[in-house]
Amino acid sequence: MRRCSIFSVLILAAFLLAMGVASAESADFRFHVSPVRDTFYPGEEAVLTLLIENDAKVSSFIINENTSNLLPLITTAKNLRVELSGNPPVEVKTINPQLAGDLPSGMVSKVSFRIKIDPDAREKEYTLTVKIHFTYVTYSIDPLTKTAYITYDHDVYLKNVNIRVSKKDYDFNVRILNSTLLAGKKDVVSVEVINTGKNPVHNTSVILNATPPLMPDPTGMIAYIGDLASREKRTVSFKVYVSENALNQSYPARFVFQFSDAAGFPKTAVKTAPIWVEGSNSIEVENWQSILTPPLNAPVRQKISVPSLPSIPYIPSLPSSSPSFLSGKKVQPASGVVTIPSRGIVEVTLKNTGEEMRDAVAILSFDTPLIRVENSPYIGHLGRNESVRVLFNVENLAQEGKYRGWVAISYTNPRGDEVLTEKHYIAVEIGESPLQIRDVKALLSAGQKGEMVVEVENGIKERLEDVELSLLSSELTITPLTTTAFIGSLESGKVGNARFRIDVDDDAVLGNYTLYLLERFEINGAEIVSSARIPVSVESRGVKIEITSVEATLYPDSTGEVVIKLKNSGSTLYNTIVMLEVSAPLSVAGGSSLGSLVGQSQPGMYFVGTLEPGSTAVVKYRVKVDKDAGAGSYPANLRLSYYDAEGYKHETGSFPIALEVEEKPLITPVLFAAAALGLIALLIAAVIARRSRRKRKSETNEREK
User: Fold this and answer.
1) Best CA proximity match to 126, nearest among 89, 83, 168
2) At residue 75, what are phi and psi to the nearest 5 degrees?
3) What is the number of other CB atoms lying within 10 angstroms of the CB of residue 263?
4) C-alpha distances in angstroms, 535 versus 113, 330, 336, 477, 500?
5) How is the beta sheet containing 172-176 ordered, strand by strand?
6) How do residues 421-437 score in pLDDT, each as one tens digit?
7) Structure confidence at residue 331 as a pLDDT band (50, 70, 90)
8) Quick one: average pLDDT of 136-141?
């Protein structure tokens, strides 16, 4: 059809080029609209079918063998869409426009709308407005260039149609006044009956006819009305019993009217109306919310029994000190991984839509055994149409995601029977903790004690009470020294800080590690336990000491001096003590500068005090060498003990150094000194002797004279 339309447009363009038409031409569109049925009754809901005819006309259009195929294109209303609107007492129930498609001239299309007539509508004609949207073709030719132009334009055509509302000779309307029955109980249904016919009725009786689960009581299923004028109302009642297995829904009830007309002839009319039934043990879940987080899964590095959370039957092992809010229970072995359950809450608001409940208890259960409900809240008395909020404590071993659970109420009915309501299914999501990790600052070094600061933020609108954090480690080389930090209360959006001291072994491998944070807090009195992973990094030693020189004068079977220069390339160190450790055949002898501080000699310990960044310290030790020691290098170690700026004491690992022992020379400095003194004495003695000889010679010469 599309190819045909394109072909027709091309023919039309060629034709118009030949004629040289200068003005735009299009068809004059008119539509005839008429209803298939034009009479309706008060209170009726029916389908109004409209017949729409396209009466498009074209003037001054030359018809020949070249243009005969163009006329349908010009006069066709394309993409026809019909809307219907009305005013009370006529209500148009069909809101969306009805699509009629392409409608050529002279053809008829059919569209349908659902309408409802008000039961109190007066007998008269009512006008409905029909709005027709369509697209049509317009053509024109430029006389200079002989170019044809084809355009598609949109238009709207309005048309009114009339329908008549007229009463039947004999008709009735039924309205249920109390439409709620309870399953397993007998009750009275009140019905308002209206004579909506034109004529009065006489000796009228109404019979209730229904099928299970509605069962009319034989003693109250017929009501006598008598005479009823047109538009007159009357209220009648029926006894109805509802079976126990009835569902929460509407069931049809048929009302049979038996009456006589003005001439005394018997007549019958039937009307159907819905009656709503509610289960006697029915509840409604108005809303629910949950705070559930995934469990803590950690690798096992060592076998240390870890206590379990309150009210949780077991918890696996995990290396760490026990948090203050844990109490000892069982240990669950796991092949390489331990799992600590989280603890959360599910809050549900339930409404009793059935009979009165006594000693009511709320029940929550999940399809998966990984989610275990710890309590069944006691409700007590719950009247009809009353609502109650219940709070369930939940232990969780399931991972993140949505899980299906069901909620019900166990209660005693007024007759003393134990009843369990039907199950209502809810979707519970396990997601992130309300206490969110905002930042982690940690300075951990191998062989050092460091500090970690964790910033947590309250990510929900509720206030968090008694916030307590516990740090756990599954690493043999990383041990929390302070395992618990108490933050207290956190308002929504507020941030709290938790500080932990951590000891890192000297043989810890440098790199990234994972610690685990166990979070405990309360929301409106309900306890929540969740967990989080904390990434930390172990770097090289926090204290950066460089040994710039080692000078030693050591000989076998003697005591010499060792002078060591240390340069601090890190942060400021306070109360620094440098300790020298040697092994046989070397031993530290004598005292050090520390001896004056403590009142006694402490060989191998040299007190430096404050060591600023970039400064150099010179430490000296007396080292004794065994007489059997040979010449060569002997290993020794230096260790530092110091305090940081926050007053915490640290000890570094060992810094290896080498001490050189030399062969004892044949002439030692002592012997050399003794020899020098002897030579000097000999020289002095020789000088004295020479002077004595000169003096004696002089005296002899004088005597000879």
Assistant:
1) 89
2) -100, 5
3) 5
4) 67, 28, 20, 15, 14
5) 172-176, 186-195, 233-242, 214-216
6) 888 999 999 998 999 99
7) very low
8) 78
